[in-house]
Amino acid sequence: MTQRVINVSALEAETVDSRSLLWWGNLGMMAIEGTMFAMLIATYLYLRMVNLDWPPSTVPRPDLLWPTVNLGILLLTFIPARILDRAAFRDNVPLCRLALGVCVVAGAAFLIIRFRVLANLGYKWSDHAYGSVIWTCIGFHLLHVIAATAETGLLFVYTLVRPILKKQLLDFRCLAVYWYFVIVTWLPFYFIVFIEPYMTRKGY
Questions:
Q1: Alpha helices (runs of H) in 51-165, residue ranges in sequence order
Q2: Over the stretch 17-37, which tens digit does the pLDDT of each residue have?
Q3: What is the model's pTM?
Q4: Which of 84, 122, 151, 168 could form a disulfide with 176 if both were Cys (CB 3.0 to 4.6 A apart)?
């Protein structure tokens, strides 16, 4: 009996693109989390529809300065995330290390300002339905930024102490895509939390 043997020695053992299962797992995770963000938006819209006093008259107008600065920092993280994505694809480890460091600094700055914004909202999550849904929206996104910044920090330290293999380059690319996700998902919440109160509240 003759057996046919195929030589697969020329095939790549690992990839840093969509041929990897990790790549699709990362996208699947973001699809699940994106659905949860969509559910939060739907909850907000439902509460807005069934409450005539929305936002409640006791809620102060939101300050736009620091939230907008925060948004600007988050949008700027797209640049190092994009650099990280392309550098990992080209196996440029020094540039990956630099991009990771910038993302860590930007993420830390974002978190510091975010906590400042939370401390000055003027209402608690327990005050009313509006407070509950707004704090949940901000808090849920905050957890994602914490996770992205912490993972970025760990990978940055890893590049300093360990050799970088192709599987780490794939980790860098998946992290960059996750940063894109974190940036995009905040845009509707920024509008809901800080812009819409000026558009819907009567008397201003």
A1: 65-76, 78-89, 93-119, 129-161
A2: 666 888 899 899 999 999 999
A3: 0.86
A4: 84
